[in-house]
Amino acid sequence: MLLSLGWVTALVAGIFAIHIGQKLCFPYFWKDVFYLVRVIRYGLRMEMYKVTSNVCTVLDRFIQQAAQIPHKAFIIYEGISYTYRDIDDRSNKVAQVFEKLGTVKKGDTVALLMNNEPDFVCVWFGLNKLGCSVAFLNTNIKSRSLLHCFNCCGAKILVVGKDLLETLVDILPSLQEDNIQVWVMGKESLHPGVQTLLDKVEEAPGLPIPAERRAATSLKTHTLYIFTSGTTGLPKAAVITHLQSLKAAAGFWAYGGTCDDVVYIPLPLYHSAASLIGIGGTLHIGATCILKKKFSASQFWIDCKKYNVTIFQYIGELCRYLCNQPKAEGEKEHKVRMGVGNGLRQDVWREFHRRFGEIRMCELYGSTEGNLCFMNHIGKIGAVGRSNFFYRLIFKYDLVKYDMVKDEPVRNAQGFCERVQKGETGLLLSRVSSRTPFFGYAGSKHLTEKKLFRDVFVKGDMYVNTGDLMVEDHEDFICFRDRVGDTFRWKGENVATTEVTEILGLVDFIQEANVYGVQIPGNEGRAGMAAVIVRPGCMFDGKKLFEHALRDLPSYARPLFIRIQESMEMTGTFKQQKFQLVESGFNPSKISDPLYFLDNAEKCYVPLTSAIYDRILSGQQKL
């Protein structure tokens, strides 16, 4: 008896010691295990699709949910509830209109220019039911860029929201010359050649389209095009396949989302975050989403309480806006348990927790066109994701040394890149393989090729250049440091410096422009700044430049600062030198060149004085 008792005591002590050892040496072991089990389960499902050539797409999943939970609210918009069946029936009507008219066939691409509203989803799903790909157009892009988008994705039909039709007036002749049909989601149109869709949808039968029209036999089949700013200077059409859509739709589920959740979507649906992760993730778990036309910091918590929101989507700027709101009673009295998004700074993260409670902030990392995704399933403040031995077996990535001055990876004597050590900042590269393919951009192989690095570690290998500087710490957490190249983020949007440079170059007194981003304390991302050379015999005209930027650039892409220079510094390969300009910032007391600031109140670029500079740093100056 004593011997048995001794064995039991020893066993309990051993288990306790192992438990303590695991807590001390491997504190995230079980969280990693549970997360990886979910990832592997979902990955096996993808593999089965490859074997059987019978893909259950995001749209198929929606149709399943519409059959199983037809009366459950799918979208709540401006206080009106739309059930899964409502959206299914209305998307059928959209499909029936285009089917009856015979304007599209399976494999065609249709462009969609709409603000957030339920009909965005209905048109999207309706066209997908016909086997068409849909190109989501950014509602901020202007005429020249918008015309370029049609050339990229090959769309010959445009569906535009009623409230956005007037923004197309100047390019309608060009669209019609290119034989692009324009359909407005309204009952009447004052513009010749623009056809109305809403009246036809309301009269159409809600009969389903045969399943074979939408059937996909490969995960690599294109289903969407989402436009992203890049180094080419104009929007690029990122190819979205069923594989990418399915992966994104599993985001909420991977973080523990269930059918009982209510998801708040304040981000624009033309972004992959709101459409692929938000709408796709909501329908994947059979939840309900609150769709906002536009984010409102003052309305956010009112909505969360009114609709019992449990999950919300964010970008870093959104959370900062919420933290900057005046404090109010009962800020922690809500049911929000999780936020899913990216770009949340550590200081904002901590302040958000302090103000609004210990909401689980689930940071993730992954570009629209990329083949790699990180998820911070632990919730460590400041990390965009977490890696480990098993994750590296699935996703092959590396951080390599990067020369900021030359704006290129460091290559050794053999011509190969060099990996950084743990804790060192490096350029994130993601390997291209059959498991992690890279689909690139539509319209030009050259654009896709520019995103790739070859012969990185051995001859013949191929990696995607993410353009992001990252660091992996000694606990395997991945942290974002900065962007490199010709793109930076401001107000939650990617700004392509080449595009802005080209548009500034159209101003008659500007001879040359070099656009880059500078950090402003207390603000997410980088604000636009342009170093310009004024043409000989001309004078800088702040009012004319303001009017030009207002007319031809979206608000987030307009340079906040202008720096007048006598000459441009160039790299050894005749590229404009940005590194020193970025480092020097916009402090008028430290820069001898004339500086100007975009003053919306004055409707002019005005001289950047020390007083304005101080107001910017203190947050008193509206940006």
Plain-language structure description:
With 623 residues, this protein is α/β, with parallel strands linked by helices. It folds into 3 domains: 56-249, Rossmann fold; 370-483, Luciferase, Domain 3 (Luciferase, domain 3, Roll); 487-618, ANL, C-terminal domain (GMP Synthetase, Chain A, domain 3). Helix content is 34%, strand content 23%. The chain has 20 helices and 30 strands. The strands form 6 sheets. It has an 8-stranded mixed sheet. Strands 7-6-5-3-4-8-9 form a 7-stranded mixed sheet, with helices on both faces. Strands 16, 17, 20, 21, 22 and 23 form a 6-stranded antiparallel sheet that branches. Strand 26 (510-518) and strand 27 (527-534) form a beta hairpin. Helix 3 (58-68) crosses helix 4 (84-101), helix 9 crosses helix 11 (272-285) and helix 13 packs across helix 14. It is globular and about 70 Å long.
- Mean residue pLDDT: 89
Strand content: 15-25%
Number of helices: 20
Largest sheet: 8 strands, mixed
Essential attributes:
623 residues, alpha/beta, Rossmann fold, Luciferase, domain 3, 3 domains, eight-stranded mixed sheet, seven-stranded mixed sheet, 20 helices, 34% helix, globular, ligase, cell membrane, lipid transport
List the helices and strands and how they pair.
Elements: H1 2-25, H2 29-52, H3 58-68, E1 73-77, E2 80-83, H4 84-101, E3 109-113, H5 118-129, E4 133-136, H6 143-153, E5 157-161, H7 172-177, E6 181-185, E7 194-196, H8 198-203, E8 222-228, E9 236-241, H9 242-249, H10 251-254, E10 262-265, H11 272-285, E11 288-291, H12 297-306, E12 311-315, H13 316-323, E13 338-342, H14 346-356, E14 360-365, E15 374-375, E16 385-386, H15 389-394, E17 397-400, E18 402-403, E19 408-409, E20 425-431, H16 445-450, E21 452-454, E22 462-472, E23 477-483, E24 487-490, E25 493-496, H17 497-504, E26 510-518, E27 527-534, H18 542-552, E28 561-564, H19 579-584, E29 595-599, E30 604-607, H20 610-618
Parallel strand pairs: 1-11, 3-4, 3-5, 4-8, 5-6, 6-7, 10-11, 10-12, 12-13, 13-14, 27-28
Antiparallel strand pairs: 1-2, 8-9, 14-15, 16-23, 17-20, 18-19, 20-22, 21-22, 22-23, 24-25, 26-27, 28-29, 29-30
Helix pairs in contact: 3-4, 4-5, 9-11, 13-14
